[in-house]
Amino acid sequence: MAVRLPGRAGPGKLAKMSALAPPIAPVDLLGVPVHPLTLAEAVAHLAEAIARRRPTTVVSLNGALLMRVLRDPQVRDAVRVATLVIPDGIGVLLAARILGVPVRRRVAGVDLAETLCAAVAPRRGRVFLLGAAPGVADAAAAQLRQRCPGLEVAGTAHGFFPPEDEPALLARIRRAAPDILLVAFGAPRQEDWMRRYGASLSVPVTMGVGGTLDVLAGRTGRAPRWVQAAGLEWLYRMVREPWRWSVVKTIPPLFLIALRERFRGGRGGQARRGETPGTEPGGRRNENRSEHPAEDISEQEVRAATE
Ligand code: UDP
């Protein structure tokens, strides 16, 4: 199968773009900094991070993860410390639209991972695949090698290891010295893992990729392009994998929370209006609001909306 480059930019073009990557300003979505990049822009930034050996962690934010961020301070911290938070999911786009936050496009984590591998392959870039069931990372590696000629697979490891094996695994990743580490433990475990170990690994790009290795290995299929373009990949996945209902059911509550925030004064839309979190229009400090909008949404409110 040929390499798909959904951003319609070939690896050569992406390599040139990396020298020109502009600084990225995040926008604020319910207290979470989100980087509203296109696929090609995100790849350009990550290619530049690799070229400069600049440690970068990437979170793909979907609606389910955003709801966990609102509910759980530990998940919130793990997402906030990421260098790039990429909007990946219709729930995130919907919340952004309601709040007037300029996040227009979804960048699917699987597309970003694969396109980045394709971009670094001509320079013999190295990727380490970590996570999924035993055998899946190896199958994904075989597919990636075939689709991205030149790509070196620096190592693979499955994601079902006991805690006592962690130090040996970390040492193995350091020795392998990959340019890209794809961490596929599912959210939010992978984000928490990246927060704990990301900085100590000296890997330029560490990225949480959820079920990407299963997709690359051909264990789970993606929706047809037209379904993805219609923003209905979540529905496709839910029909094929009914246990995903727990993920899909976060979309309506997120919709309601975003609506409520909009009518309360549009927290999360500060980037658009230039407000500072915790202040009212005109710059007055609102003592009832925290600096971080997500902290103002009580656990009770989130639970009431999700249960
Ligand atoms: N997984 C893992 N270790 C675990 C639990 C899960 O490696 O302890 C893997 C699982 O096999 C799957 C991925 O994490 O490959 C989670 O995929 P899913 O599509 O559910 O993640 P999401 O994208 O929804 O976060």
Structure write-up:
- This protein is an alpha/beta fold.
- 47% of the residues lie in helices and 12% in strands.
- It has 17 helices and eight strands.
- The chain has helices at 11-18, 39-51, 63-71, 73-80, 90-99, 109-120, 136-147, 166-176, 189-197, 212-216, 225-229, 233-240, 245-248, 251-264, 270-273, 293-296, 299-306; strands at 27-29, 32-34, 56-61, 84-87, 126-131, 152-157, 180-184, 205-208.
- The chain has a six-stranded parallel sheet, sandwiched between helices.
- A hairpin with a 2-residue loop joins strand 1 (27-29) and strand 2 (32-34).
- Helix 1 crosses helix 2, helix 1 (11-18) crosses helix 6 (109-120) and helix 4 (73-80) crosses helix 9.
- It is globular and about 50 Å long.
- The protein starts with 10 loop residues before the first helix and ends with a helix.
- Residues 1-20 and 269-292 have low confidence and may be disordered.
Which features characterize this protein?
307 residues, alpha/beta, six-stranded parallel beta sheet, two-stranded antiparallel ribbon, globular, disordered N terminus, binds uridine-5'-diphosphate
Which helices and strands, and how do they pair?
Elements: H1 11-18, E1 27-29, E2 32-34, H2 39-51, E3 56-61, H3 63-71, H4 73-80, E4 84-87, H5 90-99, H6 109-120, E5 126-131, H7 136-147, E6 152-157, H8 166-176, E7 180-184, H9 189-197, E8 205-208, H10 212-216, H11 225-229, H12 233-240, H13 245-248, H14 251-264, H15 270-273, H16 293-296, H17 299-306
Parallel strand pairs: 3-4, 3-8, 5-6, 5-7, 7-8
Antiparallel strand pairs: 1-2
The protein binds uridine-5'-diphosphate.
Uridine-5'-diphosphate binds next to α10.
